Amino acid sequence: MEYLSSKRYIHRDLATRNILVESELRVKIGDFGLTKVLPQDKEYYMVQEPGESPIFWYAPESLTESKFSVASDVWSFGVVLYELFTHSDKNCSPPAVSDQTHLFYVGGGLNSRLVYQKAATGVSGFSQLTDYSTALFPCLICCFSLNLLW
Question: Boundaries of each Protein kinase domain copy (predicted)?
């Protein structure tokens, strides 16, 4: 993801379903269908076209303003870590896709806010995660840092 951001690409669909495992130490990012190149004069991309979106993985500014940046990809990476820590338990994750007209009315938008609220409360917000690596937990919290996003 660091390489993509250095080339001014925003993936916009980073999720466990789009990560290919090559070996224990190497993974590859796939599915670049929603990827956009950042304009030279901006540090973000505004989505104009309506359509289906994986809103559970979206940062708050992506949900509310259709604004995507390197920081929103970092947020998505935090959700990927959350998925890994919960073993992608369907009870912890909402539907992956919803159309734009139902953005705030379906489970995805509300559950993305739930992840945000958990992150805002720090470690205690993720206390139900029983099988996470303590070494990676600070990375998870950093992904949801408000300083990074705004």
Answer: 1-150
Which residues are identified as catalytic? Answer: 13
Instruction: Round the average pLDDT of the chain to a whole number and report it.
Output: 74
Query: How many angstroms separate the CA atoms of 79 and 63, rounded?
Result: 14
Measured between alpha carbons, how far apart are the two ends of the chain, in Å?
A: 19
Domain boundaries, the chain: 44-149
pLDDT of residue 145: 72
3-state secondary structure of 32: coil
- Tokens 């896709």 identify what position? 97
What integer pLDDT is reported at residue 128 of this predicted model?
A: 53
Nearest to 15 by CA among 70, 77, 72, 101: 77
> Does residue 69 come out as left (phi exceeding 0), alpha (psi in the -120 to 50 range) or beta?
beta
Q: Where are the alpha helices (DSSP H) in the chain?
A: 2-6, 60-65, 70-85, 107-120, 137-143, 146-149
Q: What pLDDT does 96 receive?
A: 43
Main-chain dihedrals φ then ψ at residue 40, nearest 5 degrees: -60, -30
Residues near 55 by beta carbon (within 8 Å), at least 6 away in sequence: 62, 63, 97, 98, 103, 108, 109, 112
Rg (CA), the chain: 15
